[in-house]
Design brief:
By secondary structure, the protein is mainly α. The protein contains two helices and two strands; from the N terminus they run E-E-H-H. The longest helix is centred in the middle third of the chain and has 27 residues, at 36-62. It binds zinc ion.
């Protein structure tokens, strides 16, 4: 998908080649090219999914769908504003992380 460059001569080589066609140096193929952006992206995606999940749980319980009586009354504003906001934030984080990840 993306081209690598030879660590010895800097010329672009295919991602599947083990030897550079220009300088014939062996290229460490097993070396996974994982950039800090990808790491960051994965972190954001994980956190975003957690937020979205949390929003779902809060929505579920605050909305009274669980059938359980909560010890403290939850104001309707929570499900009106807070849960959707948290959910949107989570989705946003996932998208942002995904963008970072594919951009590499
Ligand atoms: Zn080379």
């Amino acid at each position: 998908m993306s081209t690598r460059s030879c660590p010895f001569c800097g010329k672009p080589v295919g991602p599947t080649l083990n030897h550079c066609p220009f300088c014939r140096e062996a290229i460490p193929a097993a070396q996974k090219i994982r950039t800090p952006y990808m790491e960051q992206g994965r972190k954001y995606m994980r956190r975003g999914m957690l937020y979205a999940l949390m929003a779902g749980v809060i929505y579920y319980f605050a909305g009274g769908y669980s059938g359980m009586k909560l010890p403290i009354p939850v104001p309707p504003e929570v499900n009106l504003y807070f849960s959707p906001l948290l959910f949107a934030l989570g989705i946003g984080l996932v998208l942002y992380g995904f963008f970072l990840y594919i951009r590499g």
